[in-house]
Write a structure and sequence with these properties.
alpha/beta; 8-stranded mixed β-sheet; 10 helices
Length: 315
């Protein structure tokens, strides 16, 4: 309780009011036509990603979908072509493998058309500690390191094309990482693992490194922002078993909204002229919001950035 009290003292009253107010708002509308625009979207076979793929296809975007499941990807491609005559292809990738992410980046670097929008949507939530084949805690790798690595590997191309909007589907869940990101113990050997803590740490790392990516693209037109998608219906965490699913059904889903609102928000952030040149920001749907104190701690950016580089083999 003392830790929680000290943490809450770091918030300004206005920030908490803003957060609560934004939770009741819907997304701003955007009527943009995305014809001839290339949109790269991860995690498109369910939830927010699926609704985003459908919405962007309806606006005539050229879609490059980054998915893990070949059968679901094939079915989605067929649906989008039939419903919208969409130009769509899938790049298979497993974010729990950094080698798979590198192969994905290689294929994206070979695209003939410039990348206009890059949406990092894929994510996981685990209640128990698990490690990837790379020896990294799964939630941190899938939610943070995989898009971090993709951004790095695509950076030369994105700078050259000088047009992309990079969007991270983040979360108000970053607020659960009360003590920030334990860069010295990302494997949880010396402190207790919980699902909320690991998820919050991954989303916090994403928000902190967002500032370095903003600076890296500062000389051009490329922007990078993050968005809380709202409490919407999704499959995230369903692999955690019946106890978790029962809790989710009892406490989360009754107030959850249609994921289409998240897709509408992503469309606005991806295509609205209001966001031209806006970078390094966190949005609750389409309302700009100040993240939690630990997610804007300037002293934490360097350690998280350097740890991410090292884990991705970029150091």
């Amino acid at each position: 309780m003392k830790r929680l009290f000290r943490y809450l003292l770091r918030y300004r009253a206005g920030e908490m009011v803003q957060f609560l107010r934004n939770e009741r708002r819907g997304p701003k509308a955007c009527d943009a036509d995305l014809k001839e625009k290339t949109v790269v979207l991860s995690g498109a076979t369910s939830g927010i990603g699926l609704e985003t793929a459908r919405l962007f296809a309806s606006r005539r975007a050229r879609l490059i979908l980054l998915n893990r499941d070949p059968a679901k990807s094939a079915a989605l491609e067929a649906e989008l072509r039939k419903a919208f005559a969409a130009e769509v292809r899938t790049v298979g990738v497993d974010f729990s493998s950094l080698q798979s992410v590198r192969e994905c980046a290689r294929q994206l670097l070979e695209l003939a058309d410039p990348i206009d929008v890059l949406i990092h949507n894929a994510g996981v939530y685990h209640t128990e500690l698990t490690m990837t084949q790379d020896g990294i805690e799964t939630v941190f790798q899938v939610n943070h390191l995989a898009p971090f690595l993709l951004n790095h590997l695509l950076m030369p191309r994105l700078k050259r094309e000088n047009r992309a909007r990079i969007l991270h589907v983040n979360s108000e869940g970053h607020r659960f990482a009360l003590t920030g990101v334990h860069t010295e113990d990302l494997a949880y050997r010396n402190h207790r693992y919980t699902g909320l803590k690991s998820y919050g740490a991954a989303k916090t790392a994403q928000l902190l490194t967002l500032q370095r990516f903003r600076d890296a693209f500062a000389d051009g037109a490329v922007t990078v922002n993050a968005m809380h998608p709202g409490n919407v219906v999704s499959n995230i965490g369903n692999q955690n078993g019946p106890a978790y699913r029962a809790m989710k059904e009892r406490w989360i889903l009754p107030s959850a909204k249609d994921p289409g609102i998240s897709a509408q928000a992503l469309l606005y952030l991806a295509a609205s002229p209001d966001l031209e040149g806006v970078s390094g920001k966190f949005f609750n749907l389409t309302a700009e919001e100040i993240p939690a104190p630990h997610a804007r701690d300037l002293s934490a950016i360097g350690p998280v950035w350097n740890a991410s580089l090292a884990l991705c083999g970029l150091a």
